[in-house]
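User: We ran a pulldown and think these components assemble together. Before we commit to crystallization trials, I'd like a predicted model of the whole complex to look at. Sequences follow.
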Amino acid sequence: MLDAFAARAAHALGAGVSIAGGYATLLRESHAEPLGAGGLAVLGGLDGGLDRLRLFVDDLLELAGLDAVGLHREPLRVAGAARAASDGLAGPLADAATEVEVGPLPDVLADAVLLERLFHHVMRESIAAIGDGPGRVRISGVRRSAGARIEITDDGPPLDRAMAGALFEPFTASRGAGRTTGAGVSMAIARRIAERHGGSVWAHTGRRDGCTIVVLLPEAS
Amino acid sequence: MTGVLVCDDAPDMRALLRDALDADPGLYVVGEAADGAAALLLAETLQPDVVLLDIGMPGPAAGTVVTGVRRAAPEAAIVVLSGFGPERLGSQASAEVSAHLPKTADLAAVRRTLREAGAR
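Assistant: Here's a predicted model for the assembly, 341 residues in total across the polymer chains.
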């Protein structure tokens, strides 16, 4: 029911965002001279708002369509997916003065696209928590009897223990309110991706600062 | 110049795409379709270089429209612009799509993708 609503809302919002953003672009292209510097600055502000809406809509669409996406599992190097996700978030990471460190990681049996999306969403949550930064995200992992245990740790504000469970529910809680928060479904998407692989995900907080997201995935044999 | 058949059931979206493509020196709109049946008919009649396709339109199922467009206009590239992801299409239809853009893609990305698809 919630997914159906999310999909419906996202399609309606997505069309509106496209049309508003498209006409803002045409206005900038065709009427830059009469708009002047002041008018173009106003359009820049509009672009910023639309970028937030785009992220919101894309999050909803991704959540709503996740269960229908095909799962093509293959042996994968986790480090490659983590680095690809980090590269895709280069702008937000720079804005948050946050560095990503990728340590030793075991190989897993996973869908390459979905694994990158898992890292993308967990790292977005970290960036939102770190805020203006500076910050650090460390990704590492070990082999366990239950599978490949991957940890994504940031040094943002500590996770409220009461919120640890709700963190993975859509639209309920986020550790930050930065631009990467989107629709507040990042951790819900991460959990669904892990579960679709037969894995799991949970969170725990450090003694003083930070948060660690633990992802357990099937190991590549 | 790349001739584009714009297929979207939202009139305001078609109006935006018409304005945006006509403002690009490398693109022009050859026709517009508001549902799947019209897309198939116009693809066959107009033989565009590129069919820009929303896969959430009324009419035949999205996969049927894509494979039908391929038969109707064998040389046309098919670019999907939709809030629905590739999972809405079957594997056979997905293989016929040159590029799949989210509905929220900015105009620069849409134009670039259409130019590249038309140049193949």
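Helices of chain B lie at 11-22, 36-46, 62-72, 91-95, 107-119. That may be worth checking against your pulldown data before setting up trials.

User: Thanks, that helps.
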